[in-house]
Amino acid sequence: MKKIFIVPILLIAVFFSGIALVQAKPDQPNPASDIERGIFVHYPHAKSEAKGVTTGDQVNDFKYNGIHWAGNAPEVKYIINPKNNDGLSEDAVVQAVDTAFQEWKNHNPTDSKYIRFKDGGVNLSLETPANPNRDSINSVSFEPLNTAYPNAIAVTFYWYSRSTKELLETDTIFNSDLPWNITVNGDPNSYDLQNIATHEFGHWLVLGDLYSQRDSALTMYGYGGLGETIKSTLGRGDISGINKIY
User: Considering only CA atoms, which of 220, 191, 187, 172 is closest in space to residue 76?
Assistant: First the structure.
């Protein structure tokens, strides 16, 4: 998966009851050059890499560049558009997305620095283009991506302040041009939503992709595959990553 940087924008953290509710706000006057957009693109395994896992998930590897959500106890609200081309029910999509976010919350220590992902509900009219600008919503949706990112499984965009290293907004798009499912044992003909979502939401923490074969059992391993479910649960390095940040 490759990172690309581009574009401009900004965020306000609202504090109440000791929790910072991190929700995108309309842009405030600020030097345009201070805000940048980053992109994580999740691609399938190359044929030469689609071999069995040779190491377990206890490898203590992670990649982090210092960008983070604002506040001492950030609460990040997300909106879901569950519409898809595979007949997956709205409830099933929402549950898979919520469970993927919960996996990251489960492994974050309950001290004063604790990330809180909060389900902000469903919006069936929400659309995120393949080359989005900030829209004041942290969004999760299915959209066609093959034109902009051929064969990409999913793309996560994030906006941040270069001066403060604070995250301002994140959007994840699952490629609706590819087959999707929500399975227990893995469907070899489709991508498992919870599996891929758990990986993408690691990018909401700005954890980077790992490409070494020794990391292939970790959630943040940079390639995905049909029928894969191993990313649904965090490995040692993934847990070390979130606890390094929060």
Answer: 172
Question: Which among 90, 185, 97 has a CA at the least distance from the CA of 140?
Answer: 97
Nearest Cα residue to 40 out of 177, 173, 138: 173
Give residues with Cβ within 8 angstroms of 149, minimum separation 6.
41, 130, 155, 175
* Distance, CA of 98 to CA of 229 (rounded, Å): 16
List the domains of the chain with CATH numbers. Answer: 3-245 (3.40.390.10)
pLDDT in tens, the chain (246 residues): 444 444 443 333 332 333 344 445 444 444 568 999 999 999 998 654 545 556 789 999 999 999 999 987 889 999 999 999 999 999 999 999 999 999 999 887 665 567 889 999 999 999 888 889 999 899 999 999 999 999 999 999 999 999 999 999 999 999 999 999 998 777 899 999 999 999 999 999 999 999 999 999 999 999 999 999 999 999 999 999 998 888
Asked whether the CA dihedral 180, 240, 162, 168 is positive or negative, the reply is positive
- Calpha distance 203→185 (Å, rounded): 25
Q: Which SS3 state, helix, strand or coil, does residue 146 take?
A: coil
Q: What is the DSSP letter of 221?
A: B
